[in-house]
Design goal:
With about 220 residues, the chain is an alpha/beta fold. It has one domain: Alpha-Beta Barrel (TIM Barrel). Helices cover about 20% and strands about 25% of the residues. It contains five helices and nine strands. The protein has a seven-stranded mixed β-sheet. Strand 4, helix 2 and strand 5 form a beta-alpha-beta unit. The longest helix has 13 residues. The protein is globular, with a radius of gyration of 16 Å. It starts with 6 loop residues before the first strand and ends in an 18-residue tail after the last helix. It binds iron/sulfur cluster. The site of iron/sulfur cluster has 15 residues, from loops.
């Protein structure tokens, strides 16, 4: 099935990042999340009315043209709150020979009971699940924000990366800082001190401190 006229409400996208999963990836931040975890790192992505509507077919073209990527990472926001059109996108990604990694604030158990989630789950190779809990924030595992979150190898694609300790490598993952259109765009999981410094360092002419793009892997 193709994306047809289906569209996704997205907050941001990067065609080339090593900070949101293994290898070089295209990262897609979905707009909207109803879970409202205290300490959510991307509060500007919670409203279901923000972001930009982009057609699935247009996104697929962009992904296919992204040079050198191994796969796509879906994060946000909450990817599974747009599961229908996102399943179409993820299916197209996998038919192009690319891998799919997804971060969800819902646990796998919750997703298996969630109406409409099955089609997207069927297209995900690697899932990081569970709410972000600020009190359990940890940089022990690469790409994973809090200790309660779990990795699920839903296919064999990334299974060789399983380090046997609940992750795909120990220690902090890379942090990338870019300037896009005059704004800072931060991906990966900077520690709180670095993030605060980045936010403080970016002041708009009217004096308002603004967010620094997608600052953390939030879910
Ligand atoms: S941390 Fe993730 S799951 Fe929690 S509110 Fe933020 S985007 Fe949603």
């Amino acid at each position: 099935m193709t994306g047809g006229s289906a569209a996704l409400r997205i907050a941001a996208r990067l065609p080339d990042t090593e900070a949101e999963g293994p290898y070089l990836r295209y990262a897609l931040w979905l707009q909207g999340c109803s879970l409202a975890c205290p300490g959510c790192c991307n509060p500007e992505m919670l409203s279901p009315h923000g972001g930009t509507l982009v057609g699935v077919e247009a996104l697929l073209r962009e992904i296919r043209e992204a040079p050198g990527i191994e796969g796509v990472t879906l994060l946000g926001g909450e990817p599974f709150e747009q599961a229908g059109p996102l399943a179409l996108l993820a299916g197209g990604v996998r038919r192009a020979g690319l891998g799919v990694m997804a971060f969800s604030g819902y646990t796998l158990h919750e997703l298996r009971a969630r109406p409409g989630a099955a089609a997207l789950l069927a297209e995900v190779d690697l899932l990081v699940d569970g709410r972000y809990r600020a009190a359990e924030r940890s940089s022990r595992r690469r790409f994973v924000g809090s200790a309660n979150q779990r990795l699920h190898f839903l296919t064999d694609r990334y299974r060789a990366l399983d380090d046997g300790a609940g992750g795909i490598g120990a220690g902090e993952g890379p942090v990338e800082v870019r300037i896009r259109g005059g704004a800072l765009f931060v991906s990966g999981a900077p520690d709180a001190g670095l993030l605060a410094a980045l936010r403080a360092g970016r002041r708009e002419p009217d004096g308002d401190a603004r967010g620094a793009g997608p600052p953390l892997t939030p879910t």
